[in-house]
Amino acid sequence: GDSVTQMEGPVTLSEEAFLTINCTYTATGYPSLFWYVQYPGEGLQLLLKATKADDKGSNKGFEATYRKETTSFHLEKGSVQVSDSAVYFCALSTTSGTYKYIFGTGTRLKVLA
Amino acid sequence: DSGVTQTPKHLITATGQRVTLRCSPRSGDLSVYWYQQSLDQGLQFLIQYYNGEERAKGNILERFSAQQFPDLHSELNLSSLELGDSALYFCASSPTWAGRINEQFFGPGTRLTVL
User: Fold this and answer.
1) pLDDT value, residue A96
2) Whose CA is closest to B113, among B10, B36, B25?
3) Which of B58, B101, B103 sits opposite A100 (nearest CB)?
4) Do A105 and B106 count as a contact with CB atoms less than 8 A apart?
5) Distance from CA of B38 to the nearest CA of A (A)
6) Closest Cα of chain A to B44: distance in Å?
7) Contact criterion met (CB below 8 Å) for A99 and A87
8) Phi and psi dihedrals of A44, rounded to 5?
9) Chunked in runs of 10, what are the mean pLDDT values of chain A (113 residues)?
């Protein structure tokens, strides 16, 4: 079945460091791909999305490109801030008509000042 | 604020009990999804409703049930509760127009603790 694999966390970086969180997927058809962010004590917020191959989603300095050839959707940011500390979830939306999400396990990011 | 509301925010109950979690979707959204977030299972899809009809089922236990009412709010009923049901339960809703139909907006969640 469909699945999403994320890199294990936690990831600890210094402020202004470069961030990459790896995400790969297995799916039939052509899923849409998402990154969600969860701040402590809060729900999930959509960070960015891509709906077809080679699409690049971007928001708040974060970027991810839908790579069909490598079945990947890695999250990147050039310069992280302390306020980026959160848990990041990669997800795919199935194309079976229900659009339910399949999530990765989440990657906790901690940014130190 | 996503526009999705969930009540209550916290719920503490005992094993064997039954609880009801409530969700109100964003105005105009017809689809409601329920997810369970636990430490050992991560975020798991439970069930989806679309305009009052069940659309899809995921890893939902038989002790759990849900419904969506004519005003589009949804309730998730959990019965014969076990310690392992302790988790965060999220509700999400999605728009119905093309281009955003697979974009989900999440509520703040209900944290259920079973003692």
Assistant:
1) 65
2) B10
3) B58
4) no
5) 10
6) 7
7) no
8) -85, 140
9) 90 97 91 93 92 93 96 97 96 78 94 96
Cα(A86)–Cα(B42) distance, rounded to whole angstroms? 15
User: What CA–CA distance (Å, rounded) separates A88 from A74?
Assistant: 11
For residue B44, the SS3 value is strand
CB-closest option in B48, B92, B103 to A49 = B103
| Contact yes or no for A98 and B107 at CB 8 A | no
Q: Are B32 and B25 in contact (CB under 8 A)?
A: yes
Which secondary structure element, helix H or strand E, spans residue A50, and what is its range? strand A44-50
Q: Please answer yes or no on whether A99 and B94 come within 8 Å at the CB atom.
A: yes
Residue with tokens 């009412």, as numbered in its chain: B69
Instruction: Give the count of beta carbons closer than 10 Å to the beta carbon of residue B62.
Output: 7
CA–CA distance, B42 with B40 (Å, rounded to integer): 6
Contacts of the segment B44-52: beta carbons below 8 A, 24+ positions apart: B44/A103, B45/A100, B45/A101, B45/A102, B46/B76, B47/B76, B48/A98, B48/A99, B48/A100, B49/B74
**Amino acid letter at A101?**
Y
pLDDT of residue A11: 96
Q: Which residues of B touch A93 (CB under 8 A)?
A: 102, 104
Q: What is the pLDDT of residues B10-34, one digit of tens each?
A: 999 999 999 999 999 999 899 999 9
